[in-house]
Design goal:
alpha+beta, 2 domains, four-stranded mixed beta sheet
């Protein structure tokens, strides 16, 4: 009996192709590339921001004088007595109890019949009922200090209104008397620059009639 010893080729089947699911790779494998990319992008943003800031700092240092010259006009009149950036050099008077004006104005106070050089007046007013009006014949009591100016000249008025001028309940003096250091300061230092000063009693206080509306 003769055996067949011829080698027969073996057939090998290729393994089937398997589609990989990204979720099957695991969370760590997916997170690592994303984290690296985020870090790189963040570093790029920080570096760019720093570079831009550095450029602006250099430009501001180079063109600082040019910008100041453009806006100040190299000594051109700015419409103010002293530029803000030079005011620290002024000879401020700080030895007294209160501040004082750096310049003495050219106007003198207008003398009156009383020793305080004030003038008392009543101002009539009517407030309509539809506006929450008061009773008729409303009167507001006020005292005014004025500079000596040519007749017919209009001057700005600084007014201080309150309930304590010539008020019996707090025993304050007549409204013709400067009521506080503030009023006296206006009279002594601001009036000489061409301003008038007034003290006004609100309704229902001092010599002003009707009800207080402060």
């Amino acid at each position: 009996m003769v055996r067949d010893t011829t080698m027969k080729p073996m057939s090998v089947e290729a393994p089937p192709l398997v589609e990989l699911d990204p979720l099957s790779l695991g969370e760590e494998a997916m997170k690592e590339p994303s984290s690296v990319n985020t870090t790189k992008e963040f570093n790029i943003v920080i570096g760019t921001t720093f570079a831009v800031c550095l450029v602006f700092l250099m430009l501001s240092a180079v063109f600082n004088e040019a910008f100041i010259s453009q806006f100040t006009g190299d000594g051109e009149d700015l419409g103010v007595r002293v530029p803000v950036w030079e005011r620290y050099t002024l000879p401020y008077e700080t030895s007294g109890d209160f501040g004082v004006a750096l310049e003495v104005g050219p106007y003198e106070i207008m003398p009156t019949e009383n020793e305080w050089n004030s003038t008392h007046s009543f101002v009539e007013y009517t407030l309509p009922l539809e506006e929450g009006g008061a009773a008729p014949n409303g009167l507001i009591s006020l005292a005014v200090w004025r500079p000596i100016v040519p007749e017919g000249t209009l001057v700005p008025v600084i007014a201080e209104s309150g309930p304590y001028f010539q008020e019996a309940s707090v025993e304050t003096p007549s409204i013709e008397v400067p009521g506080s250091w503030l009023g006296q300061m206006f009279i002594d230092q601001i009036l000489p620059h061409g301003y008038a000063f007034a003290q006004i009693s609100v309704s229902g206080t001092g010599r002003s009639n009707h009800c207080m509306d402060l």
